[in-house]
Structure prediction request, 272 residues.
Amino acid sequence: MVEVELSRIVIDETSDEQVIVLKEKNGRRSFPIVIGIFEALAINRVISERKMPRPLTHELLVSVLHAFGAKLTRCLVSDLRNNTYYAILTLQRDGKTYEVDARPSDAVTLALHEKAAIFVEDSVMDSVAREEGEAL
Amino acid sequence: MVEVELSRIVIDETSDEQVIVLKEKNGRRSFPIVIGIFEALAINRVISERKMPRPLTHELLVSVLHAFGAKLTRCLVSDLRNNTYYAILTLQRDGKTYEVDARPSDAVTLALHEKAAIFVEDSVMDSVAREEGEAL
Prediction:
C-alpha cells in the first residue's frame, strides 16, 4: 500500500467527467480518477472548507459515524476492474474494525472530511501511476 | 406526529428547484418540500429501484449502518424555520437509540431505501399542510 494525497481536482461544469489526481506522499507517482460532477463538487466543498447551512449527504454520513462513536481511519483505493476504481473505507469503533465498499469519490470526500489517510493498493499504483513530468 | 408517505416527486431538470410532496397516510393533508436536483434524482433512483453498479452516497450510508448492525427506524420532518425544513433520523443499534440531524431529502431517500416510516411533527403539518383539492 502506498499513501497518497489529493494533489489536484479538475472541474469542468460543461463536462460529465471530472478528474481528481492522487499523488504519492513520499514519491513522484500520481494517477487520475475520473468522477462525476456531483462527486467533484462534494470534494471541492470539503477542500474549500465551505460551510453549508445544513448537512449535505457526506456530512450526514460523518454525523452517523460520530453518533455511533465510530471513526474513519483509512480509505484505500483497492482495485481497478473494467475501468472502474474500487475503494474500501476502514472504520473503527470500540476496538473493532469494519470495512465498507465505496466509490473512490465518496472515500476521498470522507477521508478529507475526517482527515483520514488515503492509500492505494500497490498493484493499482503499479498499473496506472506515472511519474510527474511523464506523459499520461 | 403524523405518518406520511411520499406521494409525488416533480423533477424539472431545467430548474434548480425540485419538489417532493409528503401526504398523510391516514388522511388527506399533504405539503410540498422544495429540494435540489441531485437530491431529487437520488430519491427517484430509489423509487424506480434503479440498481447502480457501484454504491452511491446514500447506499454507502446504508452499508455503514448495516456494517454496524444498525437500523434506520424512523425519519421525522421535525421543524420548519426560515423556509427550511429540518429532519431527524432515528437509528437503533443494540437496543440503543441514536438521533441524527438531516435534511428532509436525505432523510426521505434513506427512509425509502430502508422502508422506514416517515413522520411529520404536528406543528409542521398544521402550519403547512393543505387538504387535497385545496389551493396551495
